[in-house]
Amino acid sequence: MTSLLDKIIARKRVEVAKAKSQVKLKVLKERAAGMDRPRNFFAAVVNSRGPRRTRVIAEIKRQSPSAGVIREDFDHVRIAKQYHQGGAAAISCLTDEEGFGGHLGYLQQIRDAVPLPVLRKDFIVDQYQVWESRVAGADAILLIAEVLEEGQILDMMILARELGMTTLVEAHEVDRLLKVRHYIGFPHAGYSLLGINNRNLKSMKTDLSHIFRLLEFVENRQVVVCESGISTRADLARLRQRGVNIALIGERLLRQPDPGRALDELLGRPGKSKT
Prior knowledge:
Blueprint: H1 3-22, H2 25-33, H3 41-45, E1 55-60, E2 63-64, E3 68-69, H4 76-86, E4 90-94, H5 97-100, H6 106-113, E5 118-121, H7 127-135, E6 140-144, H8 150-162, E7 166-171, H9 174-180, E8 192-197, H10 209-214, E9 224-227, H11 233-241, E10 246-249, H12 251-254, H13 259-267
């Protein structure tokens, strides 16, 4: 892990310890028991029978450590509505506050505004956060292979499945990909996705060609999500040619005046988004 990621994870462990002291796990479990089942994130983005087209997980974030402030006029609910109008299949929402300007409360607010399933994108280091995510309204969670041990990933995948949530297991480097690729589909098919992130954790730069190298080690490309480094329709076409039909896109859209219209255009659907 990079020193930046190390710092984030150390901070996150402190935050989780504080959250545990404020709301006991027993309370989270009681709250989760009274909730409706999550929306089916997996089904929203994996289309095994329909035409080969890209399904976009559109990301909502105010800022990032590598890019700084991405969007000054940040309104997460308005952006979610624009993404929905623009053809997003699902929403990814950053909930880390210090580094990304997010908030756990954004998840339910977005779900109340649009019918799309919502991924909690954060640095999950403890099973407590899986319960926390469900209670906050998440339909899916991100698990980062560079952050967690294999046993932790498996335990969290099992728990997420029990709670009805999808897991997006993300790998940046080939060694991590080789360790987690066999777990996709565990404990049951239809609940997990494999994310390949094109951001180099040392330089923080993105390179779309990274995924094409790592795809050589992946058999089932239907469940692969390409993350970071996507800018054009041509990029999406290149991915489809290699069997990848799911893309997580954020910064490219958020820097445009109307993120929904930008998504329309990226998908080849100009003119359908409204402010």
